[in-house]
């Protein structure tokens, strides 16, 4: 069997049979990879602890017809500060979930991978109020569905932009306005993020603009994905239910769960982001 090696960030895991898991990873060279980690749920498995969601790994896989098989894996980064902070966990989970929806299997995505790892490193350092919104806006641009932000998406005028409508393709002037009303500071924050000013945007303190930029980014993302991003709406659940709240199977919103056809795999209960054992 052919083997390949790559880096990856674990997006999620699913149980497979008694001892195995299917691990979904974002990789730079192989796009989204779904691979079986054999025996990972046995206590003595050399794989365990290295293939939890969020972990950045280097790995080697055997290429399979349907699913690949993980043969070797080393953890590069565990992102322990994120895992230990209930405010940062939902931000990370939202990024992982969105990448999971956007990434294609076996389509290289070096830029998206770099963006994901960069955003996770920033989040590991601190919870910047502009981080999640900035990540989503930049991801939309990368996907070719970025918003019109320098001129009105309706009439092309360069005047003041006062509203946002994802269906119209971005921000709108006073005469074209529809959708959500938007503050001028929010527009300039998003302009800053999308025109090379990410670093200083990330230094901004929490404000109405950072909150609004994130809310609109989520609206635009869900519009383009044509689905609800579940992780983004789970904050309350996490703080009340702790890690147990991460059970995907207990969610009432299971219509979008992606299941491996014919493999008998099931989305893992509580598999969101368990604290690392080691
Ligand atoms: Zn207009």
Q: How is the biggest beta sheet arranged? A: 5 strands, mixed, barrel
Distance between the amino and carboxyl termini: 33 Å
What is the number of strand segments? 9
Helix content: 25-40%
Structural class category: alpha+beta
Strand order of the largest sheet: 1-2-3-5-4
Low-confidence runs: 236-261
**Dominant shape:** elongated
SSE string: EEEEEHHHHEEEHHHHE
Strand content: 15-25%
> What's the oligomerization state?
single chain
Number of helices: 8
What do the pLDDT scores average to?
A: 86
List cofactors, ions and other ligands: zinc ion
C-alpha Rg (nearest Å)? 20 Å
Task: Write structural notes for this entry.
- With 278 residues, the chain is an alpha+beta fold.
- Helix content is 32%, strand content 22%.
- The chain is built from eight helices and nine strands.
- Helix 3 runs antiparallel to helix 4 and helix 4 packs parallel to helix 7.
- It is elongated.
- The structure holds zinc ion.
Describe the structure in brief.
Helices cover 32% and strands 22% of the residues.
SSE order and pairing:
Blueprint: E1 3-16, E2 20-27, E3 31-37, E4 56-62, E5 68-77, H1 80-83, H2 88-102, H3 110-125, H4 131-142, E6 161-165, E7 170-173, E8 180-181, H5 184-194, H6 198-202, H7 208-225, H8 235-241, E9 265-267
Parallel strand pairs: 3-5
Antiparallel strand pairs: 1-2, 1-4, 1-9, 2-3, 4-5, 6-7, 6-8
Helix pairs in contact: 2-3, 3-4, 4-7, 5-7
Zinc ion (ZN) binds at residues 152, 154-155, 157, 172-173, 175-176.
């Amino acid at each position: 069997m052919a083997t390949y090696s790559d880096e990856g960030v674990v997006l999620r895991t699913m149980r497979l049979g008694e001892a195995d898991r299917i691990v979904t990873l974002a990789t730079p060279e192989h796009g989204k990879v779904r691979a079986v980690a054999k025996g990972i749920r046995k206590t003595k498995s050399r794989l365990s602890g290295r293939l939890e969601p969020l972990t950045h790994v280097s790995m080697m896989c055997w290429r399979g017809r349907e699913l690949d098989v993980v043969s070797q894996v080393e953890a590069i980064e565990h992102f322990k500060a994120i895992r230990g902070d209930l405010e940062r966990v939902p931000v990370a989970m939202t990024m992982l979930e969105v990448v999971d929806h956007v990434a294609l299997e076996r389509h290289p995505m070096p830029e998206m991978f770099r963006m994901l790892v960069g955003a996770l490193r920033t989040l590991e350092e601190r919870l910047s109020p502009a981080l999640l919104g900035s990540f989503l806006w930049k991801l939309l641009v990368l996907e070719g569905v970025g918003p019109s932000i320098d001129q009105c998406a309706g009439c092309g005028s360069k005047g003041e932009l006062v509203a946002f409508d994802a269906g119209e393709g971005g921000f709108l002037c006073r005469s074209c306005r529809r959708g959500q009303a938007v503050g001028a500071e929010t527009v300039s924050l998003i302009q800053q993020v999308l025109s090379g000013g990410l670093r200083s945007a990330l230094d901004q303190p929490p404000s109405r603009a950072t909150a609004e930029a994130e809310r609109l980014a989520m609206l635009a993302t869900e519009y383009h994905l044509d689905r609800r991003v579940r992780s983004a709406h789970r904050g309350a659940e996490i703080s009340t239910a702790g890690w147990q709240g991460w059970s995907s199977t207990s969610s009432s919103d299971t219509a979008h769960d992606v299941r491996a056809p014919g493999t008998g795999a099931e989305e893992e209960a509580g598999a969101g982001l368990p604290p690392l054992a080691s």
